[in-house]
Write a structure and sequence with these properties.
Helices cover 30% and strands 30% of the residues. It contains nine helices and twelve strands. The strands form two sheets. It has an eight-stranded mixed sheet, with helices on both faces. Strands 1-2-3-4 form a four-stranded antiparallel sheet, with no helix packed on it. α1 packs across α7.
């Protein structure tokens, strides 16, 4: 069976054999027992184990499985169905929460080919288990192992913006769904962590080769009922890396937390000219 992915060594088409993806030049990439393939060349790794570690991937899975971000997933599914794609890429798919939701929504209307890439093998282990019909690979958003104009819909949720590569693989007229935090996303969490929390900027940025269709805001309030849920949310945010000790200690003392969710889904179309 033909894979959506290309060989990262020579760029040739990959075919799925029983336990590997193989190109015409016989470059071979094992499919891990967990169901994903490593297509990230060693010279493009910036660490021995790039991306989220096992602890972070587990925290993200627990939190998302709790349904706290279900309103965002629901809107992404609606927009994906509206785009009616035949081939989809989720770039920076993580544990596959949004990937699986989108695939299930699209599959109701007929067959759809879908791939997900991430640089964390720990995240992809969970993604492949969550949604076996999707092809998953360890790969970089800045060197996508996909053919030009091969994707009708590209999804990116809080992940690195490989804009040149997104332009290359998304066909003219294709849709790009780019999710970023809204102005007051996780505001009450930030009030615990920082003395003077800042708002995120909401703006339509000009991305070369793309035109704006709309910005879809998604808003909800969640109540976290346990210290574990609070810790899991904190672990999956950028604040995990840059919060001072005092802020961490304040957070660790909480038993419950109610906080605002705000997401912006930027809906862009690949220009045809």
């Amino acid at each position: 069976m033909q894979s959506m992915f290309l060989c990262p060594v020579c760029g040739g088409a990959l075919r799925r054999e029983p336990h590997a993806l193989v190109c015409p030049k016989r470059h071979s990439f094992d499919v891990a027992a967990a169901g994903y393939t490593n297509l990230l060349p060693a010279n493009r790794k910036h660490s021995r184990l790039p991306g989220d570690d096992n602890q972070m991937a587990a925290a993200r899975s627990r939190f998302l499985d709790g349904g706290f971000y279900a309103p965002l997933q629901k809107q992404l599914c609606r927009l994906a169905v509206q785009a009616a794609p035949k081939a989809v890429l989720d770039s920076g798919c993580g544990e596959g929460y949004y990937t699986a939701g989108i695939h299930a929504a699209l599959a109701q209307s007929g067959p759809v080919r879908m791939a997900g890439i991430d640089i964390s093998k720990f995240a992809l282990r969970r993604a492949a288990k969550r949604c076996p019909p999707v092809e998953f690979a360890v790969a970089s958003a800045y060197h996508l192992p996909l053919a030009a104009d091969s994707v009708d819909l590209l999804v990116n949720c809080f992940s690195p913006l490989g804009l040149d590569e997104f332009r290359r693989v998304l066909r003219p007229g294709g849709i790009f769904l780019y999710v970023v935090p809204g102005p007051r996303h996780l505001w009450q969490l930030k009030q615990v962590l920082y003395d003077t929390p800042y708002e995120n900027t909401r703006q339509a940025i000009e991305y070369g080769g793309f035109s704006y269709e709309e910005i879809v805001p998604v808003e909800d309030t969640i109540r976290l009922q346990t210290p574990q849920q609070i810790a899991d949310l904190f672990t999956m945010t950028p604040y995990y890396w840059k919060t001072p000790r005092a802020g961490r200690e304040k957070l660790e003392q909480l038993q419950t937390l109610e906080t605002l969710l705000q997401f912006d889904i930027h809906v862009l179309r690949r220009r045809t000219e």
